[in-house]
Amino acid sequence: MDVVFCFDCEGTEPQIRAVAEMAESHDVPLTIFAVGETARSYPALFRELSRFHEVHTHSDRHLRHRGMAKKKQRELIRAGRACIEDLLGRPVTGFRAPFHSIDRATVEILNEEKFLFDASGLYHRYDMGNVRELRPSWFREWAPWYPWIGLNPDRAFSIFRWLAKRRELLVLPVHPHYTGAAEENLAAFGKLLGGLKELGGRHYGGEALVRAQLERRDPG
Fold it and tell me: Which residues fall within 8 angstroms of residue 1, CB to CB, at 6 or more apart?
């Protein structure tokens, strides 16, 4: 079982750091998708995180892209990518749209801008062209209505453990403003990480997994 954690970074520095450090303590790399505005607010933090985790773009601002004019989408995607590349001094190959809100124009832009992979496509399915798709296995680790149906953080993360027994690839969401917001949430995340290791999970960054998949298909 291959596992990719998509870490959407639009929270505070302490929340982001808490979740990243918990993952590192389990030797689990996160695939961080940073909003440009957030990265510009905490540049030293993202440089530090990039030593162990992958950092890609979550666009420049946390806005819904679906239905937005293609020109405006391109401006936001380019600006978000440039922000991370300038900050880290290396190419950014991955994209994840805020709110999973992609449309055909988004897909066209990702191909035209030569992105390697996209992790947005939860609610809408498209032919991704030359862009590899890491399709999310679940929509989020929390929802405002979870407590109404008796889901505390540990029970919510148990959904991921249930999926792990049934999937060969898990692409799982993590959000700092939830998972890093309380000790109970963070402890449940740590329990999940330990459980996935016990089930034999192989943890990858998104780019690392896609490149490994491409090498397996074309070993020569």
Answer: 164, 167, 168, 169, 170, 196, 199, 200, 201, 202
Tell me what pLDDT residue 220 has. 43
- The confidence score (pLDDT) of residue 72 equals 98
For residues 184 and 189, give the distance between their C-alpha atoms in angstroms, rounded to a whole number: 9
Q: Rounded to the nearest 5°, which phi and psi values hold at 167?
A: -125, 150
pTM for the whole structure: 0.94
CB 185 within 8 A of CB 219: no
* CA-wise closest residue to 164 among 197, 140, 121, 207: 197
Render pLDDT for 139-169 as a digit per residue (tens, 0 to 9): 889 888 898 998 999 999 999 999 999 999 9
Report yes or no: 156 and 188 within 8 Å, Cβ to Cβ.
yes
